[in-house]
Design a protein that fits this description.
Elements: H1 3-8, E1 11-13, H2 22-30, E2 35-38, H3 46-59, E3 65-68, H4 87-93, H5 96-113, E4 117-118, H6 143-157, E5 162-168, H7 189-194, H8 198-205, E6 210-213, H9 233-243, E7 249-251, H10 258-261, H11 266-276, E8 281-283, H12 287-303, H13 308-323, H14 333-347, E9 349-352, E10 366-371, H15 389-393, E11 400-404, H16 410-420, E12 425-430, H17 437-447, E13 452-457, E14 472-475, H18 481-491
Parallel strand pairs: 1-2, 1-8, 2-3, 3-4, 4-5, 5-6, 6-7, 10-11, 10-12, 12-13, 13-14
Antiparallel strand pairs: 9-14
């Protein structure tokens, strides 16, 4: 390959639409791009995705890495594939074999779609309840559990498609979303080695195909003020490649995120990332940013700013990834759905029980308040959710159901509270209420009505401390269909909840 073609191999891009548009085709051909990432905006159906990935491969001059974020739980791209509960649900189930099976099923379905690189699993140790971007995307706050379950997911997944451990060296303990600005993890090196690094060390031992960088500063590893791990040579080369011995592909998180774009600019950041040791730079959204990154990298290699040896190392790592995993699966979709249900059942956690199960009662009036689900961080593609009421009705529990906004204003709160007065049993489905004062106000007011009051946390279990007056409190860690079915079965006494909380509550 010519230099300009080699440089293109270091760039992974996203595009808009469900077909390959002319601009994307031009980039693939002229810049010899090495990778494409798909989002929900690229998806109409599973058959359409298969046609799309085939078309992308046919256009590319070299085999493509085609990636997606199919984490399970709150972060998925293909809603018509099997939607498994996310990492914290698997942490609550704490079943290594189950987690490996979920990883394998996820990898097989992605390979069927033509996706050969999953940007999962999240291996951040979520030890900060106020972390806006990780939460239920993490297996929990115990680094050993995160390491064990992360390895199991990776080993299962890589029977079919490469996995990506993220976000190195670990951004579980931040309180600023990297999509918006640049956070810092200020712990010392000893603490980072004992907690944040453990899951990544285990992932490297499992031969994980790729590791994604964190747009977070780690002063203990690199004292340069304001320099995130993504752009740090001591972190990516010194720590990850040399000290920890990682031989796979280092891929950046999206360079268009605020933590990078606000402080460095896309072109300079792309150059700095590759200088630091990144092998693939990810630019997910705009063609202008993608062209800027490509041109900046080409200029940096032409001028000698980045060495030929750095380019050769990156290309060798990428080529190794592209040559692996040539098996093709036969998908047992029904079997995978049963696996998702099993994972959901094993994850549901009852933290408080004064009135469960709910039995059928023609004289009891039951009201469910269900949140209008929305993405809390930019990585989430949110489609309209199933709701709880239909699944409860399957077990003879007659109920009414109303939506509430995630940040209900006073007028909505008053209307909902007035409505609730006419009911005997209130089931309030919370969604990150611990970070949402408006939800706390609504739930607290509902709990003061002297009605039977059940809270079901559909995302982070930290909501528990926000509703001390709840008669019963249940955690599902997910609002997806399998988790709602499992919740209905637990509430109605069809199954017993066996999940164990994988984080310490406030």
């Amino acid at each position: 390959m010519l230099l300009r073609e080699k440089v293109g191999q270091l760039l992974m891009v996203g595009f808009h639409g469900t077909k390959v548009d002319a601009d994307t085709e031009s980039l693939l051909r002229e810049c010899h791009l090495g990778g494409v990432i798909l989002f929900a905006r690229n998806v109409e159906s599973l058959d359409q995705v298969r046609r799309l990935t085939t078309k992308l491969q046919s256009i590319a001059r070299e085999p493509l890495l085609i990636a997606a974020d199919q984490e399970g739980g709150v972060v998925i791209r293909f809603t018509q594939a099997t939607i498994f509960p996310g990492n914290m649900a698997l942490g609550a189930a704490n079943d290594v074999h189950l987690t490996k099976m979920v990883g394998e099923a996820t990898g097989a379905e992605l390979k069927y779609l033509g996706i050969n690189l999953n940007l999962a699993p999240v291996l951040d140790v979520n030890n900060n309840p106020h972390n806006p971007g990780i939460g239920v995307r993490s297996f929990g706050e115990d680094p050993n559990q995160v390491a064990i379950l992360g390895r199991a997911f990776i080993e299962g997944h890589q029977n079919w498609a490469w996995a990506t451990a993220k976000h190195f060296p670990g951004k579980g303990d931040i309180s600023i979303d990297s999509h918006i600005d640049l956070p810092t993890v200020a712990h010392g090196k000893e603490r980072l080695e004992e907690v944040e690094l453990k899951p990544f060390i285990e992932a490297i031992a499992a031969n994980v195909g790729a590791i994604m960088t964190a747009h977070v500063t780690f002063p203990a590893f690199d004292s340069t003020p304001g320099l995130p791990a993504t752009l740090s040579q001591p972190v990516l080369t010194g720590l990850l490649k040399e000290e920890l011995g990682f031989e796979g592909v280092v891929i950046t998180d999206d360079l268009e995120m605020g933590a990078i774009a606000k402080h460095f600019g896309i072109g300079e950041a792309a150059v700095m990332a590759v200088e630091a040791g990144a092998d693939i730079v990810l630019v997910c959204h705009t063609r202008e940013a993608q062209i800027e990154a490509y041109n900046a990298l080409l200029k940096a290699f032409e001028s000698g700013r980045i060495s030929k040896s750095r380019l050769d190392d990156a290309l060798a790592r990428i080529a190794k990834l592209k040559k692996g995993l040539n098996k093709y699966p036969y998908i047992l979709w029904h079997q995978n759905w049963q696996l998702a249900l099993e994972a959901a059942h094993k994850s549901v956690t009852v933290l408080k029980n004064n009135n469960l199960p709910i039995l059928p009662d023609k004289d009891r009036k039951t009201l469910i308040l269900f949140p209008e689900i929305a993405g809390l961080v930019q990585v989430e593609d949110v489609q309209k959710s199933e709701t709880l009421a239909p699944f409860l009705r399957d077990y003879g529990i007659e109920c009414s159901e109303v939506y509430y906004s995630l940040k209900p204003e006073e007028s909505q709160r008053k209307a909902l509270i007035e409505k609730a007065k006419d009911f005997d049993l209130i089931i309030f489905c919370s969604y990150n209420a611990h970070l949402t004062p408006e939800q706390q106000l609504l739930g607290t007011a509902l709990g003061s009505l002297k009605k039977t009051f059940i809270v079901a946390a559909l995302r982070n279990p930290y909501d528990y401390s926000s509703f001390p007056t709840a008669d019963s409190f249940v955690c599902t860690y997910s609002y997806r269909q399998a988790s709602l079915i499992a919740l209905a079965r637990v509430l109605s006494g069809q199954v017993k909840a066996t999940g164990k909380i994988p984080v310490e509550l406030l």
